[in-house]
Protein 1
Amino acid sequence: MTGSVAAGIERIIRDKGFVQGAIAARAGFSDQQFCDMLKGRKIIRADYLVPIAKALGVSVQEIYDAGKEYQPQEAV
């Protein structure tokens, strides 16, 4: 099973009680860019992960680990 990076980021934001817009700003993205990444409308490039991880106060590995439980919903 593969995890989802976006799901890992969202889980960390939720678990730590962060505000998505604040994390976006700390990582150097606009609210819309960050939202598009988390919703799959924009690719989360590998070079984006370090600033996102720093903004969250975690390692890149922790983002991957947090997303491991993610299972995409099947289309109905």
Protein 2
Amino acid sequence: MAEKMILEIVTPYKKVVDTEVDEVTATGKLGEFGVLPGHAPFLTSLKIGELVYKNNGVAEHMSLNWGYFEVREDKIIVLVETAELAEDIDVERAKAALGRAEEALKKLTSEDKQFKIYEAALERAIIRVQVAGKGMRK
């Protein structure tokens, strides 16, 4: 069994992470899950959420926006719409987006076409603020 895994996180625009890790946790459609070296192969979808990877006891927190997570032969490939390291998140911008989404949702009902769009925007903003806070505590 391998002691490390390779983690690649890719967006449509660039490869965000390409490193060796000891463990990874992420937010799947069915809940949070973790992967250690030697994990059985699997493929799952990700929802808006946090991904944490550890290497030599140091944790890196990231905000992810929808995608797929695949484990195969001690290599993890994560394909997502967006991925931001905690220290790269503009907290003020995220808080502003959170406020805009909350205001828009107050004016809509769940039947409105825009409701799901603003609901997802609110979820993204909340995750970004939470993840950014974890990056500040390092």
Protein 3
Amino acid sequence: MRLRKVHPIDLNSEYPCPCRRKGKLSNIVLTEAMGCQLCQNIFVLSDEGECI
């Protein structure tokens, strides 16, 4: 069994939306959440900052 390296999510980067891959997640100012530009969903980071 291979272990995957876990990289913390960088709030200053953009990521593909898990709902619609065409959308981009970006940081919501003054929060620890990210929002999609297309579907308007809000995603909250885990306590470790490794997943949404």
